[in-house]
């Protein structure tokens, strides 16, 4: 992450990042911004990604996950492992702040 953040500041390239929590909160706006960033127009079928995947257009081991609705069940799941992560949480704080998350 240090390398990513360093290069993001010094390289003259367009980079954008999106948080999963933002996708959960407002799918259309978050995906719309991502599509705009890469120069792809919004289509109504984007919001119905699972239907498209069920047609057989996804041929990856993660097919089952692709057809599932996006949910908030993974949000903050790391807290289940807080005790195990405690030794490295101070190392992660700069990234937590950089990406707009609440400090632990």
Strand-helix topology:
Elements: H1 2-10, H2 20-25, H3 27-38, H4 49-57, H5 63-66, H6 82-85, H7 89-98
Low-confidence stretches: none
Largest sheet: none
Number of strands: 0
Instruction: Tell me the radius of gyration.
Output: 17 Å
Q: Report, as a whole number of angstroms, the end-to-end distance.
A: 18 Å
Q: Output the helix-strand order.
A: HHHHHHH
What does this structure look like?
The protein is mainly α and 104 residues long. It has helices spanning 2-10, 20-25, 27-38, 49-57, 63-66, 82-85, 89-98. The two termini are 18 Å apart.
What descriptive keywords fit this protein?
104 residues; mainly alpha; 7 helices; globular
In short:
With 104 residues, the protein is mainly alpha-helical. The protein is built from 7 helices and no strands.
